[in-house]
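subagent[fold] <- orchestrator: predict structure for attached chain, return tokens only, no commentary.
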Amino acid sequence: MSRRLRAAAFFALALLAAGVAALLANGYGARVTAEYGPLRPAVVVARGLPPDRPLGPREAVAALELRRVPARFVPPGALSSPVDAVGLAPVAPLTAGSYLLASQLRPPRGRAPAVRRLGDRRHPVEISVSGAGALLTGGPVPRKATVDVVVTTEPTGGGPGRTYVAAAAVPLLALAPGAEEPGPGAVAAATLGLTRSQALRLIAAESFARKLTLLPAG
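subagent[fold] -> orchestrator:
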């Protein structure tokens, strides 16, 4: 037999072997499906992973495998794609060979924003204020910022309205622009740390006063 004929025979045998292998695989898959139910994808940990280390795309590809498993054997919460784990960190060490569950992952730990503590029985209360343009353009509210809330009432009779400080040196927790166009008289939403009496007084002033204005305390 010539070399060319031997190569052709070898190629034909290789194709035959590949076909048989495919038939066996299909037959095995069909038997598994018939016996255990339909298959579904499930992510399995291929190598151990430490806790608190976010998974990048390369690490997810190297450390995680996608397998097709009978649905009856897949635990609740198992991930169906390694992509779902990218950017998340294990809450505890993950051992090789185990299913990867959503409950085993969490967003990376970041530095939690500082929360300003309010004493003296104060609570956060949002009110609408005018003339806060200068405060809004100053950037984020400083951590220990305090303001005076000035109330200007509507004129009564023939006299002018009254202007007075309704709450002095109260903590300014947040300040956001209102829905109106920015300008000298634009309304902003201010979150203040108020006592109950201050909150009631300012909420009432919102309904009868011409405007409430914030002034930096000092």
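orchestrator: received. Logging for downstream: The longest strand covers residues 163-177. Strands lie at 39-45, 64-70, 89-90, 105-106, 123-130, 146-153, 163-177, 187-194, 209-216.
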